[in-house]
Specification:
This protein is an alpha/beta fold and about 260 residues long. Helices cover about 40% and strands about 10% of the residues. The protein folds into 2 domains: about 35 residues; about 200 residues, Aminopeptidase. About 35% of the residues are buried.
Length: about 260
């Protein structure tokens, strides 16, 4: 006698599949109907939304990223307080050091971004965490010299790495910082003074290749001393606005050439 085929014929298999699908669909419908009638607001308290959003960012859950505001997705941001943990930086005649001004501003930036739901790391100049550091943004905060270079020595500078992996992203980060910082603080951009120390900043070579990074000198510790030391909140607001512009993909115009 001929042995039966190992599988049913296509026509018979499709008939059985359709029946099972209808049965399964009906069963699932009953379960879902029962479940949703039992759900109350307290049901959702069993879940940690922040953990879910963190998993989304880490690609453990695949969703439409447009459905969740960027600022609520636990985006990681690194803020380097220039010279912190290494040296004093510039030292003014009145005893003020660059590092203390940098740290004051960087700490405020961390607080303001954390309050908006971001994960923010406050990093030292040569922080071991910089090795392979992965984040949406890394920004190093510095200030220019206390020396008296005349009335033109005022304003800020911002630059990204010359060899950035994604020039479009870093250009956008610089454009956002340039535009928003200038608007918020009222300080001008100090043209023609971007140095190799900025574009070849050491951390640019240490962090992960997908981390967009920039360095900002928020002002001169001579002509801009008052706003830097007496209104650090305003300085921090300008930096935060620039970072939000970048991570929230806000509209921004291209900056003029910022090369050395």
């Amino acid at each position: 006698m001929e042995s039966p085929p190992p599988f049913s014929s296509p026509r018979r298999r499709n008939g059985l599949g359709t029946g099972r699908i209808l049965q399964t669909t009906f069963s699932v419908a009953i379960v879902l109907a029962t479940l949703f009638t039992c759900i109350t607001p307290s049901f959702f308290s069993l879940f940690d939304l922040r953990q879910l959003l963190a998993r989304i960012q880490n690609s453990e859950v695949v969703v439409d990223s447009q459905a969740v505001p960027t600022s609520q997705r636990m985006v990681r941001i690194g803020i380097v307080a220039g010279h912190w943990g290494n040296d004093s930086g510039s030292v003014c005649d009145n005893g003020t050091t660059e590092v203390e001004v940098n740290l004051s501003i960087a700490s405020l930036v961390q607080q303001k971004l954390t309050a908006q739901g971001f994960q923010v790391d406050l990093l030292q100049e040569f922080d071991p965490r910089l090795d392979g550091y992965q984040a949406a943004v890394l920004l190093s905060i510095h200030n220019d010299s206390c020396a008296d270079y005349g009335t033109e020595a005022t304003g800020f500078k911002v630059a990204a790495a010359v060899g950035s992996r994604d020039q479009n992203l870093t250009a956008r980060l610089v454009a956002c910082l340039y535009d928003r910082y200038q608007r918020v603080t009222g300080l001008p951009f100090h043209t023609g003074s971007i140095t190799l120390d900025m574009t070849e900043y050491h951390a640019f070579d240490e962090i992960g290749p997908n981390t967009s990074a920039a360095i900002i000198e928020t002002g001169f510790l001579n002509m801009d001393f008052e706003i830097l030391t007496q209104r650090p909140d305003l300085i921090a607001d300008g930096i935060v606005a620039g970072i939000l512009c970048y991570v929230n993909v806000e509209s921004v115009e291209a900056t003029p050439p910022l090369n050395p």
